[in-house]
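Summary for the lay section of the report: proteins are chains of building blocks that fold into shapes. Here we show the chain for Tyrosine recombinase XerC 2 and then a coded description of the shape we predicted for it.
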Amino acid sequence: MRKRLTPRAPLPVIGPADDAQSLYHQMRPFLEWMRVRNYSEETVVHRETHLRGFIAWCDERGVSRPQEVTRPILERYQRHLFLYRKANGEALSGRSQHMRLVPVKLWFRWLVKQNRILSNPAADIDMPRVEKRLPKHILSAEEAERVLNVPDVSSALGIRDRAILETFYSTGIRRAELVNLYVHDVDADRGTVMIRQGKGSRDRLIPIGARALAWIRKYLDEVRPQLSLAEDEGVLFLAVTGDSIGTRSMGLMVSDYIKRSGVNKSGSCHLFRHTMATLMLENGADVRFVQVMLGHAQLTSTQVYTQVAIRALKEIHTATHPARLERREDREQIDEVKPMRLLHRVYGKSE
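The coded shape description reads as follows.
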């Protein structure tokens, strides 16, 4: 994903600093190997974070080298993750535990392939099951409009923020994808947005609505010239510093607008992604088209939204459940809903 990277402050060494065979010093070439293999910097940082957590846990227990890590030690670490409690007292979800263990498994597999250790203690570790959870909140069309109307469009930043919210709502793109958009990625004539090197390093071309384009045009004409610096790299949405908006700042901004709207639902940028997918399915979009919009590699990822796009299912339930099947005319309601068409939209089956 295209991104102007600012140098990170070096993180402290964990364990013996002068031991080239330590867990920490064996982690560094693995991360460099990932960069050479063109893994995104976000993936590298994500795996480094979880590997540092594992190395710190090992260091507290006197384990300092990869050769000292055994399967029982990894099983103890897995149990540690299961028993760990966050600051709010909640346990880590199965997904969170899984995310922390995957980098460890990949790292030890790499160490074996590079002949740095003789055997892989993580090879047969049973991973925690990942829950199949539905999106926590979905906005209705009316609630989405309430959020969109919160920014003060009489101010320059209000116009920029309205354009950002409209883009999220219209396209359902990820936060990191939006902050990395460039001006030339938006094609107003064709009504499209080109997302380059999105998740999984995949490009995709998706449509964007006329209203979102109108707000982007207003922002480009009236606001962006005020924010851009002499060395303008063409990033679409700029911060007050003239630089691209950070993903964290973007998330906090959107979350604040949602809170101020009074919709009584929590979330941030991803809430618009959930909302767009759900409302499109409820309005008749084929799940495979929504898959392309969201950039999902697997259809099963998109089918999660079919579980919350419940309007058509509710209509079928109302028309067919014995407690409501009181009149013969109810058969007309079933025909109007077209159950087979619903199955076709949701699961990609033919009628």
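Put simply, here is one thing we learned. The radius of gyration is 25 Å.
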